[in-house]
């Protein structure tokens, strides 16, 4: 299959499975909040953030290994692939032992950390162990999945993962509805990851029968992979920056406000994270495609694809942001109740964070493909700015202060520094070309938003009375904006024109077959 065909296959399979997962997750969230309470769900979110902190020890090893696999996969060098995956296992198992030890030590402090909660500390510890076990299984038994992703076969692992965890959510709902047993609910959180690992490893063995699962990493192999280790050390700093930007929000809200607010924010984050994941699944296969593209080292083709990806990301981010903004409050009201609706300022901040996350991805994909991680000061600066802004603003403005901190730090480092670094060290061309293209795309989305705003004011759409009416409302508004924005991009954006032409030709070839 061609890179485009594999990318599309990865995308549609990932989307189908994740939509099913989203439906079950939304239904289960309502049951969990009703049966387990806001405080317990807030503690679940906090524990997951703590595990994200412990997982900093992973230090970006998986991303570095993915980068190092592109060339041997392109050359079909199975010996090198085995060596890299074996080296990954060598590192991951040691990290798993460190995470396990650190988690056990942390558990001793749980009575002090959670002393002001109404939930029994023993239950919190059991829940933490269940969540921890899922993480540790990944370190010891699931690291081979990076080969699937680099080889553009991520759809296989995605289908197994989503199926396993849809099963978990269904069983947990049944447990709460018919047994109302919190310990059994946590036990399912503990047990299902074992099913996932078994199915995944079986699929990997079938797909790559030549892959050595018990590969022994010798001293000579470690010496040969010094460059990979260098990339890992550089990525460690980027990992820290990513965690502080995305993983400390719940911890700060828990510490400076209360656990229930973590649950309220968590409802919004659940929707946003699922949409981000859904879009991410659509584009997941493109990382390997970009890696192969960089391996070919055709700068003209690379920059052409870059602007196609940028135009598409702007298009999807713009359309999704409009639908999120105008449908979110009604969704929360119909889904969980009016008491869970938060201010429009928080919604606006979350939508803006979503938009930034989408339009930054082309830069991140090419930066990763080039292995450009030497700018270790950047994630440290992002972390410092994020924490500083978040703490200052949360003390002054409340919950929204956390998101203001995230937005400001991402603008400075992610939207300004990273493109400069990619164009200078990767493409080797003048970064002005990026700023001109990026600015034009901002103007295109602003123009589309302005036209849409006046149409929306004329329509005067009211609140939705049920989910069906909400779906029609969002679809109607989304369609109007999409038509406006598509018309602007197809007329003015060269990258979007090239993308539409490429996809049209691909579909024509498919229909001819």
TrEMBL record:
It is found in: Cell membrane. It is a multi-pass membrane protein. It comes from the Bacteria. Keywords: Cell membrane, Membrane, Transmembrane, Transmembrane helix. Its main location: membrane. The keyword Cell membrane applies. InterPro entries: Poly_Biosynth_Transport (IPR050833). The chain crosses the membrane at residues 12-28, 40-70, 91-113, 119-146, 183-200, 310-328, 340-359, 371-394, 400-422, 434-456, 468-492. This is O-antigen/teichoic acid export membrane protein. It comes from Flavivirga spongiicola.
